[in-house]
Amino acid sequence: MPGFQSFLVLVLGDPALRDELLKMPDLPSLKGRVLELGRERGVEISEDELNTVIRNNRRSWLERWADL
């Protein structure tokens, strides 16, 4: 997932960018903004790649709670 990983590096290094994403009111808004901000910064993230990241993170979160 090179596009998303590149964008993640940008977000982690830019508190203003991180804060902007944290203000998104829902997942569809967040996804749209990630794709838009990525393009603006020369990072191409496909919608499929972003959906895979979200799905994997949800699965990981659920598995942690299931182990309790």
Task: Note down, in words, how this protein is organized.
By secondary structure, this protein is mainly alpha-helical. It has one domain (2-66). Helix content is 78%, strand content 0%. It contains four helices and no strands. The chain has helices at residues 2-12, 15-22, 27-40, 47-66. The radius of gyration is 13 Å and the shape is globular. The model has no long low-confidence stretch (mean pLDDT 92).
Largest sheet: none
Q: Which of globular, elongated, flat, extended, rod-shaped describes the shape?
A: globular
Q: Approximately how much beta-strand content do the residues carry? A: under 5%
SSE pattern, N- to C-terminal: HHHH
Low-confidence stretches: none
Would you count the extended β strands for me?
Answer: 0
Count of separate structural domains: 1
What is the mean pLDDT? 92
**SS content category:** mainly alpha
Separation, N- and C-terminal Cα atoms: 30 Å
Question: What Rg do the Cα atoms give?
Answer: 13 Å
